[in-house]
Amino acid sequence: MIGFGAQTQVYLVAGATDMRKQIDRLAALVVDVLAADPFSSHLFVFCNRGRDKLKILYWHNNGFWLWYRRLERERFWWPNGHEREPVVLSVRELSWLLEGLDPKRVQGHQRAEFGLL
Fold first, then answer.
1. Residue 7: how many other CB atoms lie within 10 Å
2. Which of 51, 43, 29 is nearest to 95 (CA)?
3. Which of 20, 47, 84, 95 has the most CB atoms lying inside 10 A of its own CB?
4. Tally of domains in the chain
5. Which class for 42: exposed (0-12), middle (13-18), buried (19 or more C-beta within 10 A)?
6. One Pfam family for this entry, by name (predicted)?
7. How far apart are CA 52 and CA 78, in angstroms?
8. What's this model's pTM, rounded to 2 decimal places?
9. In what order do the strands lie in the sheet with 43-47?
């Protein structure tokens, strides 16, 4: 099974993406639109115009994973593409997005971090 590290970030490519694009074209969008490295082991998420389909691109060890999700009746929350900065989420916030929530409005419990004395 694939596990994501605590440092794994989720980058949303705002606006609509043509869902006919496959791994190579999506990786090129990561470079061109986000100025990011598609081989960085972060998750890159794309959405179609109707906001009912998502693709997630992820590099793991020696190859890409491409996940596809299609909703039958609902729509995903999705940034419209007018943002100047990339939309960055945590893996936890991605799970909220996949459940139909707006991850920028949901307030979950904050992680508690304790140092050794």
1. 7
2. 43
3. 47
4. 1
5. buried
6. TnpB_IS66
7. 10
8. 0.85
9. 63-70, 53-60, 43-47, 10-12, 87-89
